[in-house]
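Retro notes (design track)

What went well: tokenization of the new backbones is finally stable.
What didn't: we kept losing track of which sequence belonged to which structure.
Fix going forward: every design gets posted as structure first, then sequence, in one message. First example under the new rule, 466 residues:
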């Protein structure tokens, strides 16, 4: 366990962010590897895998329920030096991970084809996406237990083991993808099914490695089978923090589904180009997201310890770092987008759309970095409802106008990207306002309680019930 309530906040952020980023990049690389190797199968395969990958946002919503709830509550317990409560929350999250994993498998088998029919441009894309999803679902189901373990470690200030496991899993996936997709060395090409299967095998091996590490090395929190029986009061604590954050990812799923819907009249090449551009955009946003995620446990431990000054300082410094990082990548996307997109497709139309998307949409990277930072701070504070409200605002200010515009004469796909910039900028402004209001609300509560006012607009949270 690493105590984040003392020492330089910038040093803590910079120490935690690289391993977090490496772990996240490894996940994104898995998706890019799938797109890269299926690109030789045609636009329908690329569009199908890209659209199917969007369904992962729904699963990520459930992952966030577990991850955010576990990180916030365990970090608060660590800050209070309340180890029994940290262990109880961890084991209740383990029980939820099993339930969510089983639900994912059932939903994937029942709804994959229905989802693909709703967003795909043609029948070939429907078939490719459905096949990929069915073989990819085991990977998504296994992610739940990996998420809980990694979140518990992150809440205690330990991030390197989960990163190493992610990197090894990516290496396995990279090695398996060409063998299973294209039949390298075997002569048995599975196509898009091989893309999903290689990811599922890699994640399964990763889960086993992380379990071995956790059982042999981790000491602050541990598996306790007697605490796996669901306890409604403590499950409610996890869900109260985690559900709004999960709702944020559900909103992202709606946002992405609308994009695929309004692009389908432009054909599979347009959807494929957007899918490639979106994955690359996600990759270059990872450093800023890693900084924001590192700020969450720091804020959470200091909330538990009652260090309001350090909570505010964590936000200010994380916001500055993410803004600088995002400006750097925005300039790269504007000046040298070919460095980021090279090699993903030989189809000129597909790549032209990917270039157009990346150049336009990268203009909102600073706003997106601020959204990441605000979201992580709300998680550290233990109140994620404002995150859901700001995400819902983005969805509604984007989705309805986008669908309306798609019915108008002269509609071009560039309109989709410009509208996205406006909606993201609005969300960033709203997120900052909501976070400032949250800080002030806590300060007012502190003054009413008769405590001395903090010089910064933040006050510590009350201790959660044990």
């Amino acid at each position: 366990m690493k105590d984040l309530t003392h020492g330089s906040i910038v040093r803590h952020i910079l120490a935690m962010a690289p391993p977090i980023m490496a772990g996240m990049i490894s996940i994104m690389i898995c998706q890019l590897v799938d797109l890269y190797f299926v690109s030789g199968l045609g636009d329908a395969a690329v569009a199908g895998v890209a659209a199917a990958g969007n369904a992962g946002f729904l699963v990520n919503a459930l992952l966030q329920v577990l991850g955010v709830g576990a990180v916030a509550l365990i970090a608060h317990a660590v800050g209070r030096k309340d180890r029994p409560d940290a262990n109880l929350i961890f084991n209740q999250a383990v029980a939820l991970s099993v339930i969510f994993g089983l639900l994912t498998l059932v939903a994937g088998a029942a709804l994959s084809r229905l989802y693909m029919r709703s967003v795909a441009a043609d029948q070939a894309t429907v078939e490719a996406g459905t096949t990929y999803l069915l073989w990819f679902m085991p990977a998504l189901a296994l992610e739940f237990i990996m998420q809980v373990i990694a979140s518990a470690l992150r809440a205690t200030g330990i991030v390197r083991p989960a990163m190493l496991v992610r990197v090894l899993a990516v290496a396995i996936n990279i090695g398996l993808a060409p063998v299973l997709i294209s039949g390298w060395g075997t002569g048995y090409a599975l196509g898009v099914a091989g893309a999903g299967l290689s990811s599922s095998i890699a994640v399964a091996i990763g889960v086993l490695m992380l379990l071995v590490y956790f059982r042999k090395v981790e000491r602050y929190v541990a598996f306790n089978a007697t605490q796996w029986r669901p306890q409604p009061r403590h499950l409610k604590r996890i869900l109260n923090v985690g559900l709004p954050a999960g709702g944020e990812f559900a909103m992202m799923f709606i946002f992405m589904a609308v994009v695929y819907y309004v692009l389908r009249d432009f054909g599979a090449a347009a959807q494929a180009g957007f899918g490639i551009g979106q994955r690359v955009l996600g990759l270059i946003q990872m450093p800023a997201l890693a900084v924001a995620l590192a700020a969450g446990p720091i804020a959470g431990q200091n909330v538990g310890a009652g260090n309001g000054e350090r909570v505010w300082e964590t936000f200010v410094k994380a916001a500055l770092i993410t803004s600088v990082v995002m400006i750097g990548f925005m300039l790269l996307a504007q000046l040298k987008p070919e460095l980021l997109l090279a090699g993903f497709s030989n189809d000129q139309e597909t790549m032209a759309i990917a270039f157009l998307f990346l150049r336009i949409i990268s203009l909102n990277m600073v706003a997106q970095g601020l959204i990441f930072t605000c979201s992580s701070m709300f998680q550290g504070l233990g109140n994620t409802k404002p995150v859901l409200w700001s995400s819902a605002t983005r969805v509604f200010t984007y989705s309805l106008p986008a669908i309306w515009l798609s019915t108008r004469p002269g509609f071009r796909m560039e309109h989709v990207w410009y509208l996205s910039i406006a909606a993201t900028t609005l969300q960033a402004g709203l997120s900052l306002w909501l976070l400032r209001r949250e800080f002030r609300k806590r300060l007012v509560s502190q003054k009413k309680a008769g405590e001395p006012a903090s010089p910064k607009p933040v006050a510590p949270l009350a201790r959660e019930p044990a």
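Added context from the reviewer: Residues 295 and 314 are 6 Å apart (CA to CA).
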